[in-house]
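User: Fold this; tokens only.

Assistant: Input:
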Amino acid sequence: MRVLVTGASGLLGLAVADLLADRGDTVTVMQRRPVPGSRHPERLGDVADLDAVLAATEGQEAVIHLAAKVDVVGPWEEYVRTNVVGTRNVVQACRAHGIRRLVHVSSPSVAHTGRSLAGDGAGPADPDRARGSYARSKAVAELLALAADGPDLAVTAVRPHLVWGPGDTQLVGRIIERARQGRVPVLGTGASLVDTTYVDNAAEALVAALDRIEHARGQALVVTNGEPRPVGELIADICRAAGVPPPRLRIPPALAWALGAGVEGAVAAARLLPGLPDITEPPLTRFLAEQLSTAHWFDQRHTREVLAWEPRVSIDEGLRRLAAWASTHTPPG
């Protein structure tokens, strides 16, 4: 197939593009900035620019849409612009060019209302109750994408949960950097069970969704390794694999939530009042406090049946790969 991958500058997007190319698909990638050493033809542009999306999708047979604003803070309008308008543009471009397959990459946070998720399936996206601007905007985008599923365009939404691996600047990179500074807290006992997804598994699941879209169309599917672990243990394992001290600081969840609210207030003030320092990477937000103190693991039976897919790389093997990578790379920060 001729496949366009949006957001291919990130860890997962690049892994998806490489996997498609390795099996013989013709891959084009779209992102805002060039990727050094990229092996794929690049169409530079912003998914919020309809003309750029129309140009990038011309001649394609399928799209895997990963481009998103994933920061934990920022004006609501920025999330809408990239996550909602960008998705709408991708859908419109698919229709304009007669593209028949669209895999929309979403997030389990679109259905998270603050309670623990223990063995849940993929609940419906809920923009009104999702926590934080990222989750709310992604919920709107997922509903928009799935509403486009029809006779001429098959659409599925895949929600990989906490994707990580060597070279990751989001989850792993932030944990390592903050651990080196002694700023990674364990909330409460750290016993809340959290499932994650090794990057190779997430990429293979997205390609499986593309191949089996007639089985997956119209559905949202959560993808994880299916190996829930206590969040405190998982963070410590990542730190040890990367050669940095595991966290020792413990904070009660209620205090962490209150601190997160205060940090968000400071971020908002910095945007409104000239002269205050801009906080682009806050140490804690209410959303992060909830994510670190509530269970998040999912029943994977339906996902694996629909996609005819199972993860190949265990968490332990992923940690070994992370340790091998970290031994030859300078830690972030």
